[in-house]
Amino acid sequence: MEMHHLIIHFLIVVTQFLTGVLTNGFIVVVNVVDFIKHRQMAPLDLLLSCLATSRITLQMLIILSHLVLLSFVKMSVLTKLNTVLMFVSDWGLWLATWLGVFYCARITTISHPMFFWLKRRISKLVPCLILGSTLYSFIMSGFHEKQSVNLIQNVMLNFFSKNATHLMGIESAATSVLIFHFMVPLLVFLIALLVLIVTLGRHTWRMRAMSPGTRDPRSRAPLRALLSILSFLILYFSHYMMSILFMFQTLQFGSFLFEFCSLTVAIYPSIHSVILILGNAKLKQSAKRFLLCGQ
C-alpha cells in the first residue's frame, strides 16, 4: 500500500474516532449525570448509554487495530484483538436492534395481544435484553475465534501483497453459522423498524389529510420521527452489509472498495449517535446548553 494512501486512510480513521468518542461520550455523560441527580435511570437512557459505550469501545478498537496492524505484531495479538472487536461489534448491533424494538413497541399501535404484552413490558425487559445480548455476543465471539485466525491472515496477506492469491479459506459450515449469527439481529431490526415506518407513515398521511395546507407542528413531529427512523435503517443496513462484505470477500488493502467498506463500517457509530442526540429531547437540550456555554 502506498504511503500517501496509508496516511489518508489513517487520518480518516482518526477523524471518525474523535467524532465517535465525542458524540457517544456526550450521551453517556448526560445520562450518568441525570442518574446521579435522580438516583434512577430510565430504560431508554440505560439502553442509549450501553449503546454509546459499545460504540466508544468499538471506535477505540478500530483505531487500535490499525495501530497494531502497522506495528507488525504477532498473529496471536491480532487474533485476540479481532475476537474482542467481533464481540463489541456484535453487542452494539444487538443493542441497536433492541433500540429499534423499543421505539416500535412504544410508538406503534397494533391490535394484537402479543404486541400489547410487549408494549406494557418493554421497559422492564430492557435490562434483561441488554444482559442477554452481552452473554450471547460473548459466547458467539468465543465460538468464532478459530475463524478469526483465517480472517486476520487474509488481512495480513492483503496488507503485504498486491495480488493476494493465497488467501486462507473459511469452512463453509462455519461461514453459514457466522452469517446466520449476524442475520438474526438484522431480521429483528428490519421487522421492528418496518412496522414503525408503516405506522408513522400512516399517521403522517392522516395528519396532513386532516389539515391540508397548514403548518401544524404536530403534523411535522411524525415526519421528523419518520425521517430519523429511515436514516437509522439506512445506516444500520449499510453498516451490516459492508461488515459482511469486508469479512467474507477478498478486499485488497488500500483499494477503493476496501476504503469504502472501512469508511461505512466506522462512520455508522458516529453519525447515528448524532441522529440519536437530535431526536432525543433531553440530549438535544443538553447539547444546546453545552454549545451556548461554549460561546
TrEMBL record:
It is found in: Membrane. The chain crosses the membrane at residues 6-34, 46-72, 84-105, 125-143, 178-200, 221-241, 253-279. The keyword Transmembrane applies. SUPFAM superfamilies: Family A G protein-coupled receptor-like. It is a multi-pass membrane protein. It comes from the Eukaryota. GO terms for molecular function: bitter taste receptor activity; G protein-coupled receptor activity. The keyword Glycoprotein applies. Keywords: G-protein coupled receptor, Glycoprotein, Membrane, Receptor, Sensory transduction, Taste, Transducer, Transmembrane, Transmembrane helix. One of its GO terms (cellular component) is membrane. PANTHER family: TASTE RECEPTOR TYPE 2 (PTHR11394), TASTE RECEPTOR TYPE 2 MEMBER 1 (PTHR11394:SF149). Belongs to the G-protein coupled receptor T2R family. This is Taste receptor type 2. It comes from Cavia porcellus (Guinea pig).
